[in-house]
Specification:
alpha+beta, 4-stranded antiparallel sheet, 24% helix
Length: 168
């Protein structure tokens, strides 16, 4: 299927879409983060998030919208490190996180557009490297130039930390 035309907007500008995407995020990753909830994810997507370059404060989210202004997917840029609870390992951010595309809109370039948007945003604000953690999509990210950094365990489930170098 061909990529569709889309616009990327701050998630807080479309609070009505937050519960749907929070549910999709929870269904995809709730088993990795037992302390998470649909309610917390909804709150995070609705909140006016911090656009700070200070990693301790960085927390941004965006929705991809189609030509009819309907949300298709969401992505986040977070400053806090992902923790490997079993080993108490914390890796520094920033992190590409929370990427989920509505099942009806997959394989249309939405995820790639969101990834490109976040990597460009991170580069523009001056970050040199961006990380992510994935349970199943290693080859998807490798095709986009991401590199495996290490294997980790989240709630006893194997995952892969990947990174991309952000060049000017």
């Amino acid at each position: 299927m061909d990529p569709i035309a889309l616009t990327i907007v701050p998630a807080c500008s479309r609070p009505e879409a937050a519960p749907h995407f929070a549910r999709l995020q929870f269904e995809a990753w709730g088993h990795l983060y037992p302390q998470s909830s649909i309610e917390q994810s909804t709150f995070d997507l609705r909140a006016e998030l911090s656009h700070s370059t200070d990693l301790a404060l960085l927390r941004m989210a965006w929705f991809a919208l189609d030509a009819d202004d309907q949300p298709l997917g969401v992505i986040m840029l977070l400053g806090g490190g992902e923790v490997e609870p079993e080993d108490a390992i914390e890796l520094p951010g920033p992190w590409l996180a929370g990427l989920i595309v509505d099942p009806r809109s997959r394989r249309q370039g939405v995820a790639s557009a969101l990834i490109d948007f976040v990597t460009t945003t991170a580069r523009v604000v001056g970050f040199k490297r961006l990380r992510l953690v994935t349970e199943h999509e290693v080859s998807f990210y490798e095709r986009r130039g991401w590199v495996r950094e290490r294997e980790v365990t989240l709630n006893s489930v194997p995952n892969t930390v990947m990174f991309t170098t952000l060049t000017p």
